[in-house]
Amino acid sequence: MDFNNQHPIFMQIAAMIMDSILEKEVHAGERIQSVRELAGHVQVNPNTVQRAFSYLQDQGVIFNQRGVGYFVSDDAFDKIKSLKREEFIKEFLPELFRRMDHLNISIDDLKQYKA
Amino acid sequence: MDFNNQHPIFMQIAAMIMDSILEKEVHAGERIQSVRELAGHVQVNPNTVQRAFSYLQDQGVIFNQRGVGYFVSDDAFDKIKSLKREEFIKEFLPELFRRMDHLNISIDDLKQYKA
Amino acid sequence: MDFNNQHPIFMQIAAMIMDSILEKEVHAGERIQSVRELAGHVQVNPNTVQRAFSYLQDQGVIFNQRGVGYFVSDDAFDKIKSLKREEFIKEFLPELFRRMDHLNISIDDLKQYKA
Amino acid sequence: MDFNNQHPIFMQIAAMIMDSILEKEVHAGERIQSVRELAGHVQVNPNTVQRAFSYLQDQGVIFNQRGVGYFVSDDAFDKIKSLKREEFIKEFLPELFRRMDHLNISIDDLKQYKA
DNA sequence: GTGGTCTAGACCACC
DNA sequence: GTGGTCTAGACCACA
Predict the structure, then answer these.
(1) With 90 as the cut, is the pLDDT of residue C79 above it?
(2) Where are the domains of chain A?
(3) For residues D95 and D81, what is the distance between their CA atoms, to the nearest angstrom?
(4) How would CATH label the architecture of B9-77?
(5) In DSSP terms, which residues pair with B31 in a beta bridge?
(6) Is the pLDDT of residue D3 over 80?
(7) pLDDT band at A94 (very low <50, low <70, confident <90, very high)
(8) For B107, which of A85, A88, A111 is closest by C-beta distance?
(9) Which CATH class is domain C9-76?
(10) Residue B99 CA to nucleotide E11 C1', Å?
């Protein structure tokens, strides 16, 4: 976790979980780590992990079975993709184009910075 | 000012001043509005403007003449440009490329979103 | 705290913290008192302590872990030493030599004043 | 004048005048520049020069003849010397030794910094 | 008039 | 609980 980051830690954790689903490390229907396990793993307050899970549940990426744990939704993969796509286009791109205008950078200019 | 914004108001004010310098509305060596004047204009507390000015002074964009006011630095223009460029390249671009990789979007694909 | 001092209170607090690091009362990586705790101890407004912490964070002496508190940087000790050394050599010494010249005092003459 | 200096401008002006007396550019009994002349000279608000003159008058370095101007006191030279000496020993030296202790610098070490 | 500092008290996101 | 920001209002040195 990056504690000196503009992104809240709980969102960093949510992103981490979504990435592990995209990378097929966990599959639809599988149980994910418990709040406490994950909290111990990433050295974070359990409340923070809980908040990440709640967020993912709200987004329909995971679901909760009381007393058992959290599981990956069947359509988690597509949900995540469309979530990321929407956020990228609606929130990230406008900011990108705004900044590029200010700095007189064209889209083709970006290629030189691409690692 | 956008009071319901993730960016703090004092940073919005700082950005506003930097923009007015980039737009050549105020030039190097010129005095800018006093803390109290600007606070009245943008309807915020003088302390908030003060904080924006202190930030800009730390960045070398403006300087203070005691009892007189704040003035635009001689190299303010370049300072601002390099400040913005650095932030863009070091903080914004890595995030951009990370997201594009996840979404399988190429740099050329961006052109279709450009207004 | 000395409230009738030419140095602002928030700088006195910053100096106090740096001294406690130099004196090894707190070590690298350790958490320091919270804003509110310290404010209570030294009988000042929390905002004033906050300002001291922000200054020290800008200088890289301490860092923040969100929702948890402030911690001493790994290289705080060296940072403080070099901060003080630089200030001494660049701002204090020239003034010293200027005054000594005016008063016809040599460096060796200083020894007689040393307690 | 150095407007970005910890020393107040009126004290810088007072020091300037005292220096010109020490350098024998003006002699005891001679009239010095008027407030307005000097203010124009150093590009400063006349109030600021006035304040420097008042300070010097308080210290007995100059005296005022109403409607005519300010004149250098007969014992200005000695007054200035002892003023500077006293300030140096009572205010400057303790600070010097305090800082040198913190930085583990000895009096002999100073010689290497002497231009 | 100017900026610089401080207090008191509030609200917020986050852990 | 933590720090971060903001307001309101005050006092100060300085120009």
Answers:
(1) yes
(2) 9-113
(3) 20
(4) Orthogonal Bundle (1.10)
(5) B71
(6) no
(7) confident
(8) A111
(9) mainly alpha
(10) 34
